[in-house]
Amino acid sequence: MAILIKNIKELIQVEEKPQPMVAGKAMSKLRTMKNAWLLIEGDRIKDFGEMTNCQLPITNCQLPIKEEATQNPEHETNNRERETGNAQRATPDPERLEVIDATGKMVFPSFCDSHTHLVYAGSREVEYIDKIKGLSYEEIARRGGGILNSARRLHDASEDELVEQALGRLNEIMMLGTGAVEIKSGYGLSVEDELKMLRVIRKLQKLTPVTIVPTFLGAHAVPSEFKGRQEDFVDLVISEMIPMVSAEELADYIDVFCDRGFFTVEETDRILNAGMKHGMRAKIHANELDFSGGIQVGVKYNALSVDHLEFTGDAEIERLLGTETMPTILPGAAFFLEMAYAPVRKMINAGLPVAMASDFNPGSSPSGNMQFILSMACIKYRMLPEEAIHAVTINSAYAMGLSSDFGSIARGKMANIYITKPIPTYSYMPYAYGSNKVETVILNGMVISPSI
Ligand code: NIG
Ligand code: FE
Q: What's the CATH class of domain 111-398?
């Protein structure tokens, strides 16, 4: 099956030579193609180009097999390959070709949401009211609310109930444009319940067209039965949880909530070390509540990402420069908890890349709407629309190890895209905050209907 999208007003985030991520000044440059077509074959992006190069009688679509000659010899070889070996693939059987006319509409790569906790039971609006009345996130946590509240609810829920609730959330974010999502455990806080959460995530992988990356977050909070014995809980994470998660191959990454009132740098160090030995690379919560040292310990273990970063100073920026660790900002949590915002402008100006994710969870960010995150990036962090788009696509794809297949419009990448409603410019996406600008979702090369 092939899909041709024609008359695209603007094709966004086009890459001739795919890059793993975009950093610093380069974040303000976005490659686009106006009046374009995009061809999807199977689950991949096959080709794209300008409408002026394409003759498209609908029943007999002739796509441009021949491209303009380039001076680059490497390119010439590619073109030759396309003209010979791949030529047949570039002209799909019209019988099996679905043509979508996108006049007035734009095509974006799907959002990549690299940090969520979207498997959880119930909701926590009671704490939301406590917050309105003046309690802080940490005060609520100290009273046994917060993560411990969600852990109790998760314990009482069956796997089927958790799957059903999470699927509802996944369907919602999918229709809002998210095509790949990381999901953490962390509301289990016992061997049995952490494994239950991760098995739920594994089931979800089979039930949704959204690509899911699982992360083990055993050290999210200290459960009440370990109060005053935090070291024993860390030992449990290291000696029992990690080996069992690894034996069942339930997680790709390991996370720790390294922050004031949660887990120390030393504890994080021990847990990440154990996780690495079991093949799980670090991707951690750091510097949300204080200058916790989380960024430094993350970089020490070559974390794929360090996330939150509200408390980031010159020393932290210096430590991140030149590393493979993606600084990831979670605007939803900073907004919902009314915290200080991470110094994103300073980070980008220093040459760092920045990714953004929703942090979808019941306590600090009960929304997975990446369109809203895109708006927040511009409104609250003063990012340019171009920078914000990079942060929620290619950079967040990098932050979950997916950027070779997701996060941009490039030949051979997964066909995970969305078509917008008619919009005047791509900057309208962050500008018109609060309304849904996504009209058609295509994941793995298939048009997704809202009823799934
Ligand atoms: O990323 N900071 C730690 N964990 C989550 C919140 C989890 C919760 O409150 O349920 C976060 O904000
Ligand atoms: Fe989080």
A: alpha beta
